[in-house]
Specification:
single chain, 4-stranded mixed sheet, NUDIX_hydrolase_dom, about 180 residues, NUDIX domain-containing protein, elongated, hydrolase, Nucleoside Triphosphate Pyrophosphohydrolase, magnesium, about 40% strand, alpha+beta
């Protein structure tokens, strides 16, 4: 078990502060004092599969930890009370200054995202996205740059996330059929 797993990191009940906040076998914690029950669930995240007119796939470089400098698919976390579709459009606008014209669900893949010394488990939802125009594309927010790759030239060893590698490999098979 990773030292960043919530079982290894979370020590106190967030409701009453009791240090006897016991990890349970159902992926939850139970406070022995106030009986608060906290489940460790997956957080929703979105990823955009964007292809230009040349058939190249858009990848971004992470500007921040975790995995700073590694390649990634553009996207990010779904905010509280936000739809997945809204998050997808917001993230692509924030990171690349692009507007999605159309999106279609492709697949999901689980991931472990280590942030601040704790594992945040995500379910990454990938969408195939058509972009209105690439004219104003610009690297912003938490990405340092963007790069287009022909599917057969993607440097998979430079991609940080396990889920992003799996999604990209499935997408390449899908577009080559």
């Amino acid at each position: 078990m990773s030292p960043t797993n919530p079982e290894k990191v979370i020590r106190f009940c967030p409701k009453c502060g009791n240090p006897e906040f016991i990890y349970q076998t159902d992926n939850s914690f139970l406070c022995t004092q106030c009986k608060f029950h906290l489940y460790v669930n997956s957080a929703a995240a979105v990823a955009a599969l964007i292809v230009n007119d040349k058939g190249e796939i858009l990848l971004t470089r992470r500007a921040v930890e975790p995995q700073k400098g590694m390649l990634d698919l553009p996207g990010g976390f779904v905010d509280v009370m936000e739809t997945v579709e809204t998050a997808l459009g917001r993230e692509i606008k924030e990171e690349l200054n692009l507007e999605i014209e159309e999106s279609k669900y492709f697949m999901s893949y689980p991931n472990e995202y280590v942030f601040g010394g704790i594992s945040v488990f995500t379910i990454d939802l990938a969408y195939i996205c058509a972009i209105k125009s690439f004219n104003k594309i610009d690297a912003k927010d938490d990405i340092s740059s963007f790069e287009f790759y022909r599917p057969e030239e993607i440097p998979f060893n430079d991609i940080g996330g396990t889920s992003m590698k799996a999604i990209l490999k499935a997408f390449i098979k899908y577009i080559q059929v």
